[in-house]
Amino acid sequence: MLQRLRTLMGAAPDPVPALAAARAAALQAALGEPDRIDRDSDRQHRIDVHVYARNFVEACVDGDDEGYVLVTSGMSDRLMPMPDGYDGDESAARELFWYVRAPHPAFIEQLRWLAKLPFAEGSWLGYGHTVPLPEPPLAASPFSTFLLLPPVVATDRHLFDNLHLHGQGVEPLVVHLVSDAEYDLVRSDEGLDVFLDLLDVHRYPLVFDPARPSYL
Asked: Which of 53, 57, 92, 215 is deepest in the core (most CB within 10 A)?
């Protein structure tokens, strides 16, 4: 009813429902039907997590084989609060991806937590940012810090190319998990570039492997 009244009165439609519909269409066009959607019960800022099965050899020549893509849907319904005076080219509208071997409930929970963190803390997430987790996603895993990087899979990199919110393009970031020593390196001067070179040297797996050795 409210939407109809706005239309009759000549008011512009609320951008969030329109963006949500466009985002759903983009996801379906690129990734097909999800295996399932983990729905968020938060009515103030709902961020669902879509789960897609994927053959990573087909998606990326250097990828692994079978796995899943976890994708947030709803983070970009709000713009992240960027620093005062920020003049860079990163978008304030983001969605997150995580490549996993199986869609463990802890992965879904922590991906949603990360997607909501900027709005809870008045911060933002961008290329090369690191975020320590309250606890590791798996009890036996030595990896407990998220590292955010652009997608290397072309399909994911361009999935939201035609989506915008208030002039900001919706851009994806892929989450990776690093060890404490790797985290220390990334945070050092020029450490991110050094760490990315290490990933190439060690043929870093595209799909999260909680059993991989730390590269430091």
From this structure: 92
